[in-house]
Amino acid sequence: MKTIYVYVMDTLADWELGYVTAELKSGRFFKKGAPAVSVKTVSYSRPHTSNGPGFLEMMSPAYTGQAFYKDEPSVSDANLITAGSTAALPWAKHIIEHTGVFSAETLEAWYAYVSTGKPEHFFALINSVHQ
Q1: Each residue of 31-58: pLDDT tens digit?
Q2: How many domains does the chain have?
Q3: Among candidates 17, 75, 19, 20, which has minimal Cα distance to 44?
Q4: Shared domain check, 30 and 48
Q5: Whole domain around residue 26: which residue ranges?
């Protein structure tokens, strides 16, 4: 078995790892005789989420974190922030909120704008930065 460790750098975008982790974890297109690959992930002893109840058990039969699983798009527990594959935006919001780099007003305006595209939220976002 080969083990893959992912080092997350400042410039990493979520889409950069999406294809490779999906393929390495599923093994669906591996050639015959290829070794299994393990992609190391975080411990399941803290609140977390995924693509839905049962998903983690399906993908990892050794999963034992059911007591900590939350059926929400994105879950934040101190410095551990998880999300399902369709929740990139709520995940980004949790991360930005955790880092504290946006004011609360800017964060809400940013989220409202990028989740709806409505111009009034864009102007609220711009106004929140220039205050």
Answers
A1: 778 878 776 655 678 898 888 998 888 8
A2: 2
A3: 75
A4: no
A5: 1-40
